[in-house]
Specification:
By secondary structure, the protein is mainly alpha-helical. 50% of the residues lie in helices and 4% in strands.
Length: 250
């Protein structure tokens, strides 16, 4: 089913088709899982082994792509939280997803799409557990730096303010004052932001002002989809070619 969603001429399809064993196939699926275009498709098709596919990331140095994928899945797959916690305690992320900003010459030199992805990841972490940054002693400095940098992308400013407000425990009225100081009247400036990738590799964009609404809708739709759709994960196909995965292969 996954191969039906991937162009047959792509390297990703070739890697899956050329897998020499079940262990090799699982490793390739784990690597594809943090590719933004395939995260949701693989999480749905391989839900019974999703924890194993994500846990394989702990065997090597973790990447921003893995963190972003985990944060996308977290609220609909709460069993992944221990993996997220382990990754956030690695040297790469121990000071938070945005800690690198404090050592960067200027936020203006950082790719805007990268900032969108990491700010959205931090927003999703805060939605799932607002106490986590305090537990891990994340500084507010990276967010403050983004907020106070002039001429920065409007969506970056908006996302940084939303994350700052959630992490610091700021009230809604106080957050709205900060947004007005930095961005002007609500919805007065364009705040287009990157919001996921399609299977064909094209990027989705949404209005950052409406991002919280999109997030609530996304989580609701995913939960309804899991509850309503039937997936037969355990039966063999019509030709009886489906072999069970051995515990030693996980």
């Amino acid at each position: 089913l996954l191969l039906e969603k991937i162009p047959v001429t792509s390297k990703d399809a070739a890697d899956l088709l050329n897998a020499t064993s079940t262990s090799d196939l699982l490793q390739k699926l784990s690597q594809l899982l943090y590719h933004p275009a395939f995260t949701l498709a693989i999480a749905t098709l391989y839900r019974p082994i999703l924890f194993d596919l994500c846990a394989r990331w702990l065997d090597a140095q973790n990447t921003e792509e893995q963190l972003v994928a985990l944060c996308l899945l977290l609220e609909n797959h709460e069993e992944l939280f221990p993996i997220l916690y382990r990754i956030l305690n690695t040297p790469t992320f121990v000071e938070g997803p945005l800690a690198f900003i404090t050592t960067s010459p200027s936020p203006l030199s950082i790719d805007v799409s990268r900032l969108h992805r990491l700010l959205l990841a931090q927003y999703r972490i805060l939605r799932a557990n607002r106490e986590l940054p305090q537990l891990l002693i994340w500084s507010l400095s990276p967010l403050s730096t983004l907020i106070s940098t002039p001429h920065l992308d409007h969506a970056v400013h908006l996302l940084a303010i939303r994350c700052y407000a959630m992490q610091s425990g700021m009230g809604e009225a106080e957050r709205e004052v900060m947004e007005k100081q930095v961005l002007g009247e609500p919805y007065g400036v364009d705040c287009q932001m990157e919001y996921g990738t399609n299977l064909d590799g094209t990027r989705n964009e949404i209005d950052g002002w409406l991002m919280p609404v999109f997030e609530l809708q996304r989580i609701k739709e995913m939960r309804e989809k899991v509850a309503s759709e039937e997936h037969d994960y355990f039966s063999a196909d019509d030709e009886g070619l489906c072999a069970p995965i051995k515990s030693s292969e996980l």
